[in-house]
Amino acid sequence: MMRGKKLEKRSGNGVFSLTLIKALGLGSWVRFLSSRSSGAGATSNRLKLTAAKGAVRTEAKSGHGVKEQAWMQDRNLDNAIWEALPEELLERVLAYLPLTDIARLATVCKRWQSLIHCPQFLQTHAENSSSWPSYGPVRYSVNLSENGKFHWSGYCKSANKWQKLPPLSLPCLAGKKVWSGAGGLLCFYNRDNVGRLTVCNPVTNRWRELPPMNQKWRWPCVTHMIVDQSRKSYKIILAGNEAYPRNSITYRSQSTEVYDSVLDTWQLSGCLPKDLYLDTQDAALHNGLLYCTAQKTRTQTSDSLSAYDALIAYDVQGGVWTEVSSQLPDSSAYQTPILCGDHLVIVVAPLDNDGAEGRFYLLDARTKNWSLLTIMPQSLHKKLGFWGVCVAYGSQILVVSDTSMLVVVYDMGEGTWQELSSHQADSNFEFITPTIFSPNVNAIP
């Protein structure tokens, strides 16, 4: 719970602890909100509170410098007082709970289970968007025998540690894996067959199964979700050269398809140039352009082809692919585009921990040339082992080990490397994804 305080509710007599209210320094809210109330209902509430308190009027200073009535200092608060607590106060207090406690909140009673859908609860979180931190990258497990039970955890940058997140129990998620995510939403797909996608808000447990796609995708090379917070809408972009099995007569190598949540439809979009082939599932969105890496082929002679790496971009609004840079820094290793601050960075991951250290290159937006930004220190390179994923938080780049879940960070502003976490891998979590989950009760699947 908040500040290490335990939230208690006892069955039978309904006794509830005021520890949470004290911990948040919200004792004065009881008096403030009661005084704000008007009408017969408010008068009734005040009378109930007065009767429950009895004749005790002793006041004491709390640890937060707030004067408290003696009745507020009693952990075993009388049931009549708790029942008389103004609804607005209850919703505001519970809205400040950490995300990891929301799952337990819903098991207390039906009233609290429905609380996260209440307007006041949603408004409180909209006004205090920083009350819940972001988690990413995300690691998870898929268990077919648990009827959609989804166990997961995320790296909390503000706390510098991995944290288990409330498990999801939705039948629609049985056997599915995380594909992408943004704005508090996660996109899932069936691990055996891409088929139809499911979008879910893990906080509210609301979900939507998307309509069938126009193409029977075998395996898209790029999958990316874009959320428009102002419109409470999102798009999902699929692109690549695996739309159909290669032995199929309907095989297509230039496919792009976009889902729009407002229209609730999939639409075919601009095709990739015929000599470009996407070679990554990672992409970075910047100023309306989705940047990806690709291979470009060209004919040397009548019977031979050569290929080189290139940076390309998809105009989300215009639906057109263009080539940004005809040369990437290092074609000998896996390359990932990420957005760090307002800069596009190519991460060159080592092929193994015995090879060269990871390198990071910065793109000059004007000249389209690359310059070396930093090289991972040898000590961290050896300790990290095989890379799992690489994500960016503002001006910081986090690299996560695939085996030990070690997390190291490069601060672009300071120009420094640091080890953040050496948390050992939990065998219960099979997969890791570069998705950053930012809890949002207002996100609509």
Automatic annotation (TrEMBL):
Superkingdom assignment: Eukaryota
Annotated F-box domain residues: 79-125
Name of the protein in its database record: F-box domain-containing protein
Species assigned in the record: Sphagnum troendelagicum
